[in-house]
Specification:
single chain; 5 helices; 2 domains
Length: 115
């Protein structure tokens, strides 16, 4: 019962010794699903383009560019997202999304469940 309470509770209060992991777990699963939805078609499309459609002279250029992106540690992408993308999202994108989409049934729930 203690484990299920930990998984389903949103509050995290270290002073009163109440811990809940719902928000980080839901956020991780949510982001993973959306990343897969966006990344799978793009990666399959790039693979098909490189192997089937790209001119012979362009294949090494595109392949090298993709390998260079893969060589960068994911921590660097995370830091870029934290210091560059997060402020832009917080100041410009998120207020617009909350103003225009928070009243929709499913999307509104997803936007407010992590708050």
């Amino acid at each position: 019962m203690e484990f299920w309470h930990f998984i389903t509770t949103k509050s995290w209060d270290a002073v009163n010794n109440h811990f809940g992991a719902f928000t980080p777990l839901f956020g991780s699963i949510y982001v993973t699903i959306w990343a897969f939805i966006f990344a799978a078609p793009i990666s399959i499309g790039v693979a098909i383009y490189i192997t089937e459609l790209a001119p012979h002279w362009l294949k090494p250029i595109v392949t090298t560019a993709i390998e260079l992106l893969a060589a960068i540690p994911t921590v660097i992408y995370g830091m870029w997202g934290l210091f560059v993308l997060a402020p832009v999202m917080q100041n410009h994108i998120e207020p617009w999304i909350l103003d225009h989409l928070a009243t929709l049934p499913v999307i509104g729930f997803l936007l407010t469940v992590l708050a």
